Every structure is written in structure tokens, then in C-alpha cells.
Amino acid sequence: MTEQYKYEVIKKLVETNGNKDNAALKLSCTRRHINRLIKGYLNQGKTFFVHGNRGRKPSHTIESNIKENIIDLHRTKYFGTNFTHYCELLEEHENINVSVSTIYNILMSEGMLSPKARRLTKKKMRSKLKEQRKATKSKKEVAKLTENIVALEDAHPRRPRCAFFGEMIQMDASIHNWFGDKKTHLHIAVDDATGAIVGAYFDKQETLKGYYNVFHQILNDHGIPYMFYTDRRTVFEYKQKKSSSLEKDTFTQFGYACKQLGVEIRTTSNPQAKGRVERMFQTLQSRLPIELRLASATTIEQANIFLDSYIQKYNAKFALPINNIKSVFEKQPDIEKINLTLAVLVDRKIDNGHCIRLNKKYYKPIDSNGYPVYYHKGTQALVIKSFDEQLFTSIGEKVYSLDEIPEHEYTSRNFHFPKSTVKPRKRYIPPMSHPWKKSIFTKFVKKQKHYYEQSFDSAMHSQALTSIAR
């Protein structure tokens, strides 16, 4: 249109021998340039006003087959990825080096929105889709245009970071279709100062086992943090149940493990208070399922193995450099203490066969010399299942290992040749300074608010029954 306008002004100027100053004012140029345009018109006519690059492609133009490949890959292999992540995947796996803005322009022209699109972008796309719907009569085309709009997710507000690495560790779990058809829970721990993931673990539910595995990674890789900041799950803050079983009281067990290591626990019911971990789940839900799909991880075991390498890759890209921030992590405990501290506790009694029943199996206490120990029926025992799956029991002020009693003897006295008597091997028994002595743990349990309330309620209930009987 600009070229046509120039042509018409110069043509009229030549034919009518008009005012050159007036023509220069119309075209916003100098009188000298008007003379050039007149000379070009007289020599070449209308073709002089056609720009020399008309019909030529710029040198940086992306070829049409690459554009089609980008669109097809986003619809098939890398569906559900945001544009920034998609740009990284194309460079890593497909050897296609294009900018994020180029991908944005290509996909937006096809009506394909990013899962991270903002309200204003979606509003513009909706108005564009309405115009296209009016223009088309095909139902398939309308459905294809509509499916690209993704519901907006609420973002979480920012909060100031902590000053030191390890000062605050935010912990939470997210249920999502991370891999396969079944939903699983991803437990993660995020350092507030750096935004680095310091522990991650998949499990079927949000459980004490999941958080113990995350805690184990933190202790092995970094050390003892100053504080955990979590939501009010029963693992971190107790909600009274009908059953008073110690095995189900995960709060007391996790809380006691933190007490032994000197880690403070702070809880909140407001998700925005721990916005660092909540916002990270938004990023991981956009990126991690695609990465797991490309890695062909279909089970929890495979996904947990993949997490080890992925966390390093994620932290290298998104976390702040740890070297520039002072660490307040305390020195890592030894492996023995970690395994005994991150333990699951069960209250049991000695039966009339001098054994302990656990998970439909029977176990006998064994002392450090390898000989069985016998207690009277009804003796209270605390079964300790360490993080590395070893079983111990604390009875009174003594600790013993547990041996499973098989359903049938491995050898027969009547049909096997007798072997020379061998002394039982010595067993490793944790020293008396270990954190799970029954007396110390019982003292800690009685101080807990929910146990105090339960004992008070039961006392009031028995008192009421006694008054009714009278």
C-alpha cells in the first residue's frame, strides 16, 4: 500500500507539473528524494516503486518442513509441554535449535496455547477462536480449535528467601499422574534459600515412609537442617484418631526423629506460606511427566531411580548457586545413627511362647552373643524397624535383635546327618546410647498433647461409668 501511494503521488506530480514541496510533505521525505523518485518513474515506470526484496525469503527464515516438524512433535511426542521446556527438549533430543519466541509464534499461529499461558493471552486466543468458528462450518475444526485452551491454574505469591542454605526446608507431597495411569505421590524437600530440591521420593500414598526417604537423602547428601516447614499432615501434626495405636501415630515417630537430631518442625494450614514448594510442584507437573515418559519409567522403582539424575539436572537449571550462600547444615550423622533414627516403632507384648508377633510372623529376641532371651508373657516390648529394614526390640533398658521363627525347620534331626555344634555368631546390638530406648521414648510419648488429651478423656469416661454404676 505504501508503494502504491508513492506511485500515485509521483505520477500526479509528473503529469500535472505540480509542487514538489507539497509532494515531499505528503511522503515525509526531502525535495532531493522527490527528484530521485521522479527520475526513477520516468525511466522504469511503476516497477521502480516495487521493493527489491519483494518475494524473497529472509536469510534467517525457518524452512516449512522444520515448522511442520515442530507442530507435529508438540502434538504427538511432546504433548503437554510448555514452550520453554519444549524448546529445551527439541535442542536436546531432536537437534532443532530455535528460540522460545520462534516456537511461540509458530504454535500460537496454529491456535496451540502453552499450559502456562496467562489470562490475557487466553482471552486474546478465545476472541480469535470465536472469529474462526464463525468462518468455519466444520465441527472437527471447531473442536480442534477449542481443545487448545487450557484452564488457568492459580499461582502462589512470592515470599522472601531465607538467608542461609539449610535454614528452612519446605516439605510437601503432590498427587498427580506422574507416570502411567495410576496417580502417585511425589514427596519433595526444597531449600528456601536456594530453591534447590534436596530430596525427592515417589510412593503410592503420602506416608511416613516417603518423608523418611526424603529425610534420609537430606542427611546423606547435606547434613542436619535447622528447620522443616510443612503442612498439617498427621506425619507432622497429629489429628486425633479413634485408634490410639502407636504404629499409626506417625507424628510422634517423625517428631521424635527430628527431636533426636535437633530439627525444628513448623506447620501451617496456608499453602501460600510455603509457596516455594507449592510453586515448584506447578513446574514439576508441567515438566517431570514428559521426562518420565521419554525415559520409559512406568513403575515407582524406575521413577525413583530416574529422580536421582533428574534432580541434579533440575537444580543446575533453576536453583541458585549454593557456593554463594552460606550453609547452616550440621555435619552428617554416621550411617548407623541415620538408620536407627529414621525408624518405624510398634508396641507389642511377649506371648506365651516367649515371642513377638509382627505382620503375621513370629520373632524371638536374640542377645549380642547370639543366644535367645526369654521373657514372661505380657512383657511390654518396643519393636524397632530401622530404615535399612533391620528389626530390633527394646525391652526395659535392654535392646535385642529379632530373628524370624520359620514355619518349618530347615533341617530334620532324623533324616539329616548331624553337624558339629557351632556356637551362635555374635550379633550387632545398638548401644544403650541409641535413640530408641523404650523408657526414653515412652517418656516423650506421654508429653505429647494428643496422648495427654486421650488419657484425660478415657479417665473422664471411666469416672462417668463409675458414677452411673453407683
Automatic annotation (TrEMBL):
Describe the location of the Integrase catalytic domain by residue ranges: 156-341
Family annotation (InterPro entries):
Integrase_cat-core (IPR001584), ISNCY_transpos (IPR047797), RNaseH-like_sf (IPR012337), RNaseH_sf (IPR036397)
GO MF annotations in UniProt: nucleic acid binding
Residues in a coiled coil are: none
GO biological process per UniProt: DNA integration
List the protein's name.
Answer: Integrase catalytic domain-containing protein
